[in-house]
Amino acid sequence: MNYRVAIIPGDGIGPEITREARKVLDRVCAIYGHSFEYKEILLGGASIDVHGIPLTEEAIKEARNSDSILMGSIGGDAKSSPWYQLEPEKRPEAGLLKIRKELNLFANVRPAYLYKELKEACPLRDEIIGNGFDMVIMRELTGGLYFGERKTFIENGIEKAIDTLAYDEKEIRRIAKRAFEIAIKRRKKVCSVDKANVLDSSRLWRKVVEEVAKDYPEVMLEHMLIDNCAMQLVKDPKQFDVILTENMFGDILSDEASMVTGSIGMLSSASLNEGKLGLYEPSHGSAPDIAGKDIANPIATILSAAMMLRYSFDLEKEADAIETAVKQVLIDSYRTVDIMSKGKTLVGTIKMGDLITERI
Amino acid sequence: MNYRVAIIPGDGIGPEITREARKVLDRVCAIYGHSFEYKEILLGGASIDVHGIPLTEEAIKEARNSDSILMGSIGGDAKSSPWYQLEPEKRPEAGLLKIRKELNLFANVRPAYLYKELKEACPLRDEIIGNGFDMVIMRELTGGLYFGERKTFIENGIEKAIDTLAYDEKEIRRIAKRAFEIAIKRRKKVCSVDKANVLDSSRLWRKVVEEVAKDYPEVMLEHMLIDNCAMQLVKDPKQFDVILTENMFGDILSDEASMVTGSIGMLSSASLNEGKLGLYEPSHGSAPDIAGKDIANPIATILSAAMMLRYSFDLEKEADAIETAVKQVLIDSYRTVDIMSKGKTLVGTIKMGDLITERI
Ligand SMILES: CC(C)[C@H](C(=O)O)[C@@H](O)C(=O)O
Ligand SMILES: CC(C)[C@H](C(=O)O)[C@@H](O)C(=O)O
Question: Which domains does chain A have, with CATH numbers?
């Protein structure tokens, strides 16, 4: 089959890691007889450098016309460029928020699991790790504080800023459904996280999630307050199967969860719309401090490409092939520096890409 | 000296643990020649049971007329009572939010440290623990999403809910000052946490914190995004000295931090106003499942009483005496069940209170 894939190299280590993912995809094409037509799109700092804005209308059009999007990472170096002093819409991140909203990518799926081979990289004690953890964070991605009205103004000589957290039942229902659909194929547990003892939006969240749950009687639903969940992820991450939550809480919990697993350089993510379009990207950031040094770990991006094959193109066996190749490289003891441990073989970004490609 | 202390036993294990703290305070009185006049105040579920509302005007007046307030814990059993279906102002938590606002307790100080004696209870690996951690979370407590306007309504047949996150420069300035004042007496590092790549309120937060920082040139200021901070607390908690953040982020981070230390049953907190009045309470919750069983750990509440002596009454040596007694009990191998480990002596709530009292 022929697929149009938009590639967003992005900032920092983004270009290096997407390059390795393309290498792997090319190999998949050659072996399984597909063809991918790539189109590069500028987003974030890379787009600001060329166009002065983080995302052009052209780029959005390009993305919309693709079958799916593979992204590296977005965001500049907070130390060298005080981006937070920029107008919101001129910041690199604004491009990412815009593409999420424009393409209606409301469902952010972030698997967080522990690689058995990388157990030593997990910050938690062996007793807590037990047989390992395997959870999925389902984060709502186009609502809440990220997209509510905001303003900064002076009132009686005092500067004041306001952000708004809004959700309607439709937005909650569609993401809740996605979470239950995923849970059904897994261990059949959904933990919905909110702050219903304080927020109105959380009370509505709970109510709608409970309604949706009625259609999935085989799935166990639990509610947890966000502060408690931030604790439980450290105390006993094994308890979680699918975590369902709103945009800002999901941002916090998914980063915490991926660090808890010790595998942040390994974790992929997908941002999906109602149909088949998705934006796939590693869970980690753009790490500008190590950009261009051939030391970044490309595995999360390569696994994001595998996720793309599975979710957007229904190419199950091709996705499996990539995932198996990654496992094999780990079994063969190759490690980038972020996951290095005693007795393993240290390799760089390009070499890691080659090793995985060879194994497909 | 004579002090008026309002006692809020609260819900769940609250009454048991405040009882032990009073026992310890009485001992301090006897030895150091002070007198504490106690007044019990109903708050939360306990107040709803008697008055139908979580906090009466009477109770607020009582609290306002005290020199300080010692609290157990608030909140019902989420399983047996679906409190989140109640009108917001009728929920137990509403009483706590109200007393914070009414008494202007804007500065929530939550120390999070690892007890050397309880190292095994820490979920993190020994390599990460190193020489231990010792940080303070300074959480803004009377602004942000907790106290912004909110509403739930129907628009075009769709139910919608809105919460508002607002901060003005004054609110930010006063909490930032408190954080720098504390940092000066510690390791001279403030990490201010926000989401300035998305929120207007966070951009104002950063700007004001930077202004305040100019008055404290000896303190190092760093900014961190909330999602990154949630990761860093797991990856390398040693890096933190004072974390300064807004209300909701502080709720999440302080719970995560106290779990990371493995000492949640041991951690006290203070909520302070501009003057000397404070509300002191354990960092943990009301644990209704173990209420009345004489197994709850009273140490966090006893240490909160010590914090009260230090911050509200300037009774340094008396506070030291309590803290030393707690340390001694741990050295003498006594443990409640939450911090129990092999070879130690298991004791209940009352016995733990007695053991600490004896050592003063
Ligand atoms: C870059 C930033 C705006 C973004 C977010 O907060 O959503 C990132 O942290 C993420 O999780 O994808
Ligand atoms: C009970 C609840 C409203 C409260 C909060 O969120 O502030 C609690 O979690 C706390 O941290 O003191």
Answer: 1-103+277-360 (3.40.718.10), 107-276 (3.40.718.10)
C-alpha to C-alpha distances, B224 to B69, B196, B277, nearest whole angstrom: 33, 9, 31
B125 in contact with chain A, both atoms CB, cutoff 8 A: yes
The sign of the torsion formed by the CA atoms of B92, B95, B98, B99 equals negative
Expressed in angstroms and rounded, the spacing between residue A244 Cα and the centre of ligand 1 is: 17
pLDDT over 60 (residue A79): no
Hey, which residues 42-71 in chain A have their CB within 8 Å of chain B?
none
pLDDT tens digits, A128-187:
999 999 999 999 999 999 999 999 999 999 999 999 999 999 999 999 999 999 999 999
* Assigned token pair, B63: 């609290």
Residues B55, B14, B335: CA angle, nearest 5 degrees:
160
Cβ within 8 Å, pair B123-A235: yes
**A255 part of the active site:** yes
Please give the average per-residue pLDDT across A216-235, as a whole number: 96
pLDDT digits (tens, 9 = 90+) for A318-348: 999 999 999 999 999 999 999 998 899 999 9
Centroid of ligand 2 to alpha carbon of A199 (angstroms): 12
- Nearest 5°: CA angle at B337, between B331 and B339? 50
Give residue B84's pLDDT. 56
Tell me, what's the pLDDT at A116?
87
| Average confidence (pLDDT) per 10 residues, chain B, 360 residues | 94 95 97 95 89 93 96 70 64 91 97 90 93 96 97 97 98 98 97 94 96 98 96 96 98 96 92 96 91 96 97 96 97 94 95 98
Beta bridge partners of A153: A160
Residue A55 has pLDDT above 90, yes or no: yes
B171 CB near ligand 2 (under 6 Å): no
Question: Left, alpha or beta for B236 (phi > 0: left; psi -120 to 50: alpha)?
Answer: beta
CB A118 within 8 A of CB A263: yes
Assign B186 to helix, strand or coil.
coil
**A interface test, pick of B79, B100, B125 with most A CB neighbours within 10 Å:** B125
Minimal C-alpha gap between A30 and chain B (Å):
39
Q: Which pair of structure tokens corresponds to residue A81? A: 């460029």
Residue A204 Cα, ligand 1 centroid: separation in angstroms?
24
The DSSP element (H or E) to which A221 belongs, if any, is strand A220-225
Cα–Cα dist B278/B43, whole Å: 16
Binding pocket residue ranges, ligand 1, CB within 6 Å: A 74-75, 93, 96-97, 251; B 197-198, 227
Distance from CA of A314 to the nearest CA of B (A): 32
- B251 as an active site residue: the answer is yes
Q: Are strands A158-168 and A134-140 parallel, antiparallel or unpaired?
A: unpaired
Ligand nearest to the CA of A108: 1
Pocket test for ligand 2, best of B93, B145, B259, B283 (most atoms within 8 A of CB): B93
Distance from CA of A109 to the nearest CA of B (A): 16
Q: pTM surpassing 0.85?
A: yes
Mark residue A223 as left, alpha or beta (left: phi above 0; alpha: psi -120 to 50; beta: remaining).
beta
